[in-house]
Specification:
about 10% strand; about 150 residues; mainly alpha; 3-stranded antiparallel beta sheet; 3 strands
Amino acid sequence: MALLERGPFDILKLKEIASNFSLFLIRFAIFRRILDAEMKDGTRAGIDLKAKQKEQKPVTDEEESQLWQSGVFGMKMAKSLLNVVYYYNGKLFGLHGGEHRQICLNNFEIGDNYIRFEENACKAFHGGLLNLKYEPRVVIFIFVIL
């Protein structure tokens, strides 16, 4: 509204603004390609980003049995049962720290010999234009009843 109140723009001024803006976009695209190439060269040379975390190694069967024997995992106390649920949600369905807070009963389907998990919208999925092709992760864990 404020632009309309000032009166019509000079057409030459608008062309100049558009020309400067397109020049900026071209320069930005060139800068972005150079930056991308430099980052790839750095990665090939072994230079990592400081924010990259050290890769975690999986928990071994011996370490898992130690957790059961020490009482960290258990079925008799609420805290130890919560530890079991947290651990197995991560192990079976690939959940990370913050994702545990967002799950609810509706994320799970329990069948005779399977558990199906479907993720919620999360930090990687916001529902905008860039996420139109996003498919929520679905994990099915099939188990054998003896």
